[in-house]
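#lab-general

N.A. 3:47 PM
ok so I finally got the sequence cleaned up, no stray characters, all 181 residues accounted for. can someone with queue access submit it? mine expired

B.Y. 3:52 PM
send it over

N.A. 3:53 PM
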Amino acid sequence: MRHALVLGGARSGKTAFAERLALRAGSRPVYLATAATLDPEMRDRVASHRAGHADRFTTIEEPLALSPVILAAGDVHDVILVDCLTLWITNLLIANEDVATAVGELCATLMEFQRAKVILVSNEVGLGIVPENAMARTFRDLAGSAHQRLAEVCDDVYFVAAGLPLTLKGNSPQPQGATAQ
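B.Y. 4:20 PM
back already:
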């Protein structure tokens, strides 16, 4: 089973690209959403996002325990779309969890897990200026380390900008509607 990591900036088209990958990869996809709805604006975003893919995906919401949910979802679904890892890392930080340990657990799960294709979506936050506060720098560093570790264990890695995917690793076919680079 070929697992994939899809990276890109905010509003880059990475989720739409990942959804196309998922729909081409299987007939029983699940959307594993990591957003925690802590304020009204985020609740609205989650509701809109859920409504936008409800006819194509089953949705599971899990802000922290990705590995056990991936393992359980693989019993029913042939594709698991995880959106998004940077929200997951934020949730782990808020919960005072060890991010490096959680990422290591996720990597181990992906290396052994073959029952379903896993597609991970994450924001690339390391391309801008150095953040001015320690917490933002810690978050950027943790996200960058997570991306490196996950890119190592995923078979396919894509970077999306302006809706256009660039294949960084692997040779999977581009999904319909995507421009090959």
